[in-house]
Amino acid sequence: MTLLRAERVTLGYGGRPVVHDVSLDIVAGGVGLIGESGSGKTTLARAFLGLLTPMSGNIWYGDQTLKKADMRTFRKDVQPVFQAEALDPRMRIGASVAEALPRAERSRVGELLEQVGLDPELAGRRPHQLSGGQRQRVVIARALAVGPRLLILDEPTSALDVTVQARILDLLAGLDTERLLITHNLAVVERLCRTSHVLFAGRVVESGPTAELLARPAHPYTRALRDAVPRLGGPPPAANGRTEAVPAATGCPYRLRCPLAAPQCERPPALRELAGRQVACHRAEDVLT
Ligand SMILES: Nc1ncnc2c1ncn2[C@@H]1O[C@H](COP(=O)(O)OP(=O)(O)OP(=O)(O)O)[C@@H](O)[C@H]1O
User: Fold this and answer.
1) Looking at the whole model, is its pTM more than 0.80?
2) Which residue's CA lies nearest to atom 7 of ligand 1?
3) Which residue, 8, 9, 177, 247, is the most exposed by fewest CB within 10 angstroms?
4) Which ligand 1 atom minimizes the distance to the CA of 19?
């Protein structure tokens, strides 16, 4: 059974929805959420962590909705990997990792530091005495402390330079923990996620095997992301040079930016099966060719 699943979830703040009717399963092999800033990735991740209650729809944790689940067990199974800046600057990193461990297992700090490729000797240092990559490893060690089944990672490497980024990706790829990864960096999802969901304006516009989505996109937004983003690092994508166009309020939200927009795009496209993935685009056949 899938550990976590969103079923027709709508999420928002102050009664204003920003994620609309999203369904997705966190399946084995890594799941990526891709999309530009403001597309709703972090909002969806917060709902998967039980930090935001859906306005409608459900987050399923096994066979229970998150509302009804035992949160103690949930917190052991599902752990966030925060940005390294979230580490307490006053705390030595050994203490920081120990704090995340169950009381009876506090002696495992050195073992955990080794697991993430850090010298246990570093336990006595404070965060500012480590490199950015080392700090990110400490954050991962903290998340691993309770033995989670799933890690939820929000831009885990975006603050790091390219070579350090690659080593952190190697570390994450080598863990036998499931992962939900949020990023605008396609190289990162390519490395860590067998399945990806592309979000635009709070809606899933394309979902499927990452390799196929990137090799042969069926949605013009996925294609724009692929074509505009450098393979590693770099800024968020420019979509056909028209990133300034706001999502359309009616019809296909992408239509004001889309080079293929046609009269039928004034009707909202439903997600449909095509070429081994799901895509919400009236003109997907023309994108695939
Ligand atoms: N606490 C909040 N209160 C009100 N609106 C919010 C809040 N957090 C996010 N939003 C809005 O929700 C929308 C989605 O934001 P979200 O942070 O989920 O996007 P994102 O894809 O993760 O972006 P980024 O890559 O910049 O983190 C945006 O329009 C944002 O302004």
Assistant:
1) yes
2) 13
3) 8
4) 14
Average pLDDT, the chain: 91
What is the C-alpha separation between 40 and 182, in angstroms, rounded?
Answer: 10
- Fill in the DSSP letter of residue 247: P
What is the per-residue pLDDT across 71-86, written as a single tens digit (0 to 9) for each? 999 999 999 997 777 8
Residues with CB under 6 A from ligand 1: 13, 18, 35, 37-43
| Residue to mutate, 34, 43, 157, ligand 1, most ligand atoms under 8 Å from C-beta | 43
Ligand 1 centroid–CA 280 distance in Å is 22
Complex confidence, ipTM:
0.96
3-class DSSP state for residue 77?
Answer: helix
What would the pLDDT profile of 229-258 be if each residue is shown by its tens digit? 554 445 554 444 455 678 999 999 999 999
The token duo for 229 is 């983003």
Distance between CA 81 and CA 178 in Å, rounded?
Answer: 12
Arch. (CATH architecture) of 4-288: 3-Layer(aba) Sandwich (3.40)
The residue nearest atom 1 of ligand 1, judged by CA position, is 13
Q: Give me ligand 1 centre to Cα 263, in Å.
A: 30
Q: What token pair was written down for 252?
A: 């296909």
